[in-house]
Design a protein that fits this description.
Chain C: It holds the Pfam family COX3. The complex is a heterotrimer of chains A (113), B (614) and C (206). Chain A has 3 helices and no strands. Chain A is mostly helical and 113 residues long. The N terminus of chain A is likely disordered. Chain A is 74% helix and 0% strand. Chain C has 6 helices and no strands. In chain C, 75% of the residues lie in helices and 0% in strands. The model of chain C has no long low-confidence stretch (mean pLDDT 93). Classes of the chains: A mainly alpha (113), B mainly alpha (614), C mainly alpha (206). Chains in contact: A-B, A-C, B-C. Chains B and C meet through helix 6, helix 7, helix 8 and helix 19 of B and helix 1 and helix 5 of C.
């Protein structure tokens, strides 16, 4: 069972070309998202370093930047947007949801009384 | 085409130690879980004997603390969990028409980790005293507890928790990727569905426990300050983390029991399950809500009215999907041709018992009332009604139902009914009076009480009930021993089953299905029988079947962690390093030695089919 | 078809990591594991956020953290995430040498990150920020240390993987393993994004 493979047929030349183009495209996406992530990191560090942004706004701001950066990681670098990632996506969404509840619950409720 | 690695049949003990076959691992889980069930039961009996009269001195207060801690921890983690995994292993791959689970090696590793975790915990009895901080291990009780009992608790749970986590992932992948053609999600039997949701809960609930146990260990071994208010810590953190894990944990336990009950009720009413899609939806919803209610264990911790109200409402909301399930079971029986076999008796007994546990659950979900009930015997009565009256009754129903599939024997029905009635009556005798003991003010986890407070009679009744439950359990073991006689070999399809696990002969061939079956609807085997077919329609021609090789590595990986845990408890770096070295060496061997398994040849399969063995 | 045979360009599947059932299972199982890891780190973050202001008589986050070191560490890890993506792209084109090369760069960057972290921890201990000092220090070292442990494990994993498959090309057996490692490495970087944001940057703001 485990050795059923789809490699019996040789790869068609046309398909090989298609793949090459797709990979080239993908490389471009990866490079762009790398530059974006560097930029996001720089902005986050600058916002804190420069001391020019009020601290309550800065915290919200850098958290949003972090979320955007993670979105790049998950969707572009880890390919969550690709076909055949339905269950991984479900797994991650559930995990993130429960993670959010956990953080809100523990961090929010221990000093209230 | 084929990679026929030489494979020699191992015999006896070696076969059990190296097996990666889900059917055998299921039996291992059942036997080990049964063993820990007895140990936990004996601990419970000691407590009930201590409490049968006021100011008894059968055990000391200190010993009583150890007994109640070990009873709870053992029953939850080392009896109920493995028994659930036993049925998941024995049944789920068969129900979805698969030849094995997705990761057979990991499956074996999961079992051995659980087993050595359990041995670790129980070793504390012989090594200076068991943990005594309750199964919940609240700080600062657990952080300041003297001796090394709590260290055994932490490391035993850590090791077995890792096993449970990988087991959960394994079943998720198995159910998603390994279903037979035609077995869509909405055609999966309810037991498979509940196993699926339970595995998802395991995946997300066990990581917080892992972290909580690490923190507790750091606190005890390295003087960390998470729970130490003197250095800025906060004891509530432990309670939150424990219950973020702990509440989903009780749904992890109950859902597979719901699944087993669904199968049994449907089979013995000769009707398809009423409201199948509502049942699936209710299962998923219970799983989801399970993560939103943990604060109801902490109403009296003083989190304030807003937090308490939100979690109270969320808790009560769970009664809705659970109620849906109860009604669907009743409607499945309604108008059915009910056969009151032993399995069905357990299922029918389960329904009112679990409803009672649910009702007291809603009572406890009212924060203002909870201030009265909290830490009293009312709570003890409540959770025994849902865990014994729910989980255990469901597991017994599953045991009588699937025993033929697992052991190629049926259990004696007369003895089974004696078991049911003694256990069932004993259960209500034990725990029903505890509701009133709690309302009368008897606190839980206290080793004795004074006379003249009207607590004497009810406690005596409770102890008599516990004895009756013990008698019932002994009857079960007699039944198991008797079943080994040849007389009890099952006929093909002993219950006139509806799902795929009954479509194969006894004993189950090692490869489960000679040809992967084609599934044409819900209750696939029943559909084929109604269409006049004796067997499932195959979805593939007969061919070579790939099988995984057995391996001794899972056992040694677990032994390595077991040894390392002793190093951590006795602060011996050498022992710790040796243990971890064993584990990492095994992991290294596993990754460098290619193991592609072997093939059972087409000819062998054809021969089996001709002789009716598959 | 042998699954541990070196794949040739003519027979190269589009997604070699998911070409076998075994590969598909590993792929899904590992993603689900990462979902669980998300909750694991969330618990650590929650504890840290709850306790980070309680530094008692030790140094506070604002006094302690050195942003230049953190920035450098961030750049190392972020770049290593990119190089592991390049390795996966090479994997999908059956370019073995290029793949091994990019993975080696990833390894070096990972080790550089670990070196910086060790240096940073030593500095902090000198400034009185020991593990047992306060609730803040305990939760800081546990959270950041857990992440560092993940980086270390990743490095060991990668070394084993590369050594074992050095001369074997890309096969249907090792392709999923390489792919899983890359996923793991990205995830470790995801966690770091939140660590530098929540621990270091928010620590500076107070």
């Amino acid at each position: 069972m485990a050795d059923h493979t789809k490699t019996e047929q040789p790869v068609h030349r046309n398909e090989a070309l298609h793949r090459k183009i797709a990979i080239k495209e993908e490389r471009k996406y990866h490079n762009v998202s790398f530059i974006m992530m560097i930029l996001l990191t720089l902005i986050a560090f600058y916002a804190i370093w420069s001391d020019k942004v009020s601290s309550s706004f800065a915290i919200l701001f850098i958290l949003v930047l972090a979320v955007i950066q993670v979105f790049f990681q998950l969707y572009i670098w880890m390919h969550l947007s690709h076909k055949g990632h339905d269950f991984p996506l479900w797994g991650m969404i559930s995990g993130i949801l429960i993670a959010a509840i956990t953080v809100a619950g523990i961090a929010g409720l221990i000093w209230t009384s | 085409m084929s990679t026929l690695a030489s494979h020699s049949k191992k015999s006896g003990l070696m076969d059990w130690l190296t097996t990666v076959d889900h059917k055998k691992i299921g039996i291992l889980y059942l036997v080990a879980g049964g063993l820990f069930f007895i140990i936990g039961g004996i601990e419970a009996m000691f407590m009930r004997i201590q409490l049968f009269k006021p100011e008894n001195d059968f055990v000391s207060a200190d010993m009583f603390n150890q007994l109640l801690t070990m009873h709870g921890t053992t029953m939850i983690f080392f009896a109920a969990m493995p028994l659930i995994f036993a049925f998941m292993n024995a049944v789920v791959p068969l129900q979805i028409g698969a030849r094995d689970v997705a990761f057979p090696f990991v499956n074996a590793l999961g079992f051995w980790l659980f087993f050595f975790g359990g041995v670790m915990l129980n070793a504390s009895w012989l090594l200076g005293g068991a943990p005594d901080a309750g199964w919940t291990g609240y700080a600062p009780l657990s952080t300041t507890s003297l001796g090394s009992g709590v260290d055994f608790y932490v490391l035993g749970l850590q090791i077995s928790g890792a096993g449970t986590l990988i087991g959960g992932i394994n079943f998720l992948v198995t159910i998603i990727n390994m279903r037979a053609p035609g077995m869509s999600f909405m055609r999966m039997p309810l037991f498979t569905w509940t196993s699926f949701v339970t595995s998802g809960l395991i995946l997300f609930a066990f990581p917080p426990l892992t972290i909580g146990l690490f923190m507790l260990m750091f606190e005890r071994v390295f003087d960390a300050n998470f729970f130490n208010p003197d250095n800025g810590g906060n004891i509530l953190i432990w309670e939150h983390i424990f219950w973020i894990f702990g509440h989903p944990e009780v749904y992890i336990l109950i859902l597979p029991s719901f699944g087993a009950i669904s199968e049994v009720v449907s089979t013995f009413s000769k009707k398809r399950l009423f409201g199948y899609s509502a049942m699936v939806f209710a299962t998923v919803l219970i799983g989801f809500l399970g993560f939103m209610v943990w604060v109801h264990h902490m109403f009296t911790a003083g989190l304030g009215p807003i937090a308490n109200s939100i979690f109270a409402v969320a808790t009560m909301a769970i009664a809705v999907p659970t109620g849906v399930k109860i009604f669907n079971w009743l409607f499945t029986m309604w108008g059915g041709k009910i056969v009151f076999s032993t399995a069905m008796l357990w299922a029918v007994g389960f329904i009112p018992t679990f409803v009672m546990g649910g009702v007291t659950g809603v009572m406890l979900a009212i924060p203002s009332a909870d201030y009265q009930f909290h830490d009293s015997y009312f709570v003890v009565a409540h959770f025994h009604y849902v865990i014994v009256g729910g989980v255990v009754l469901g597991l017994f129903a599953g045991l009588y139902y699937w025993y033929p599939r697992m052991f190629n024997r049926v259990l004696n029905e007369t003895l089974g009914k004696i078991h049911f009635w003694t256990f069932f009556i004993g259960f209500h005798l034990t725990f029903f009076p505890q509701h009133f003991l709690g309302l009368m003010g008897m606190p839980r986890r206290v080793f004795t009480y004074l006379s003249g407070q009207d607590l004497d009679d009810l406690n005596l009744i409770s102890t008599v009930g516990a004895l009756l439950m013990a008698v019932g359990t002994i009857v079960l073991f007699i039944n198991v021993i008797i079943s080994t006689s040849k007389k009890y070999a099952p006929s093909e399809d002993p219950w006139n089953g509806r799902t795929l696990e009954w479509a194969i002969p006894f004993p189950t061939p090692e490869y489960n299905f000679a040809q992967t079956p084609l599934v044409r609807g819900l209750d696939p085997f029943w559909l084929e029988k109604m269409a006049g077919n004796k067997k499932m329609t195959p979805a593939e021609p007969v061919g070579d079947i790939h099988m995984p090789n057995g391996s001794i590595l899972p056992l040694f990986m677990s032994i390595g962690l077991f040894v390392a845990a002793f190093g951590a408890i006795y602060k011996s770096i050498l022992v710790g390093v040796i243990g971890l070295a064993i584990t990492f060496l095994c992991m290294f061997l596993r990754s460098v030695i290619d193991d592609h398994g072997y093939h059972i040849h087409k000819k062998e399969v054809e021969e089996d089919m001709k002789e009716g063995r598959s | 078809m042998e699954t541990n045979q070196r794949l040739t360009d003519d027979h190269f599947p589009e997604n070699p990591e998911k070409a076998t059932l075994d590969g598909k299972n590993k792929f899904l199982g590992f993603w689900l594991f990462l979902g669980g890891e998300t909750v694991l780190f969330a618990t650590l973050f929650a504890v840290y956020i709850g306790l980070r202001d309680n530094h008692m008589d030790g140094p506070s986050a604002k006094e302690l953290f050195q942003l230049p070191t953190v920035f450098l560490a961030t750049m190392l890890l972020l770049t290593s995430s990119l190089t592991s993506v390049y390795a996966v792209l090479a994997l999908k084109q059956n370019k073995v040498k290029s793949m091994i090369g990019w993975f080696l760069v990833t390894l070096l960057l990972g080790l550089g990150f670990l070196g910086l972290e060790v240096y940073e921890f030593i500095e902090y201990v000198h400034e009185g920020h020991t593990f047992t000092k306060s609730a803040f220090s305990s939760s800081f070292y546990t959270l950041v240390g857990f992440h560092g442990g993940h980086v270390l494990f990743g490095c060991l994993w990668l070394v084993t993987l590369l050594l074992r498959n050095w001369n074997r090309g890309i096969t249907l057996t090792n392709a999923p393993k390489y792919y899983l490692f890359a996923l793991y490495w990205h995830f470790v970087d995801v966690v770091w994004v939140f660590i530098f944001t929540v621990v270091y940057l928010m620590g500076k703001v107070g």
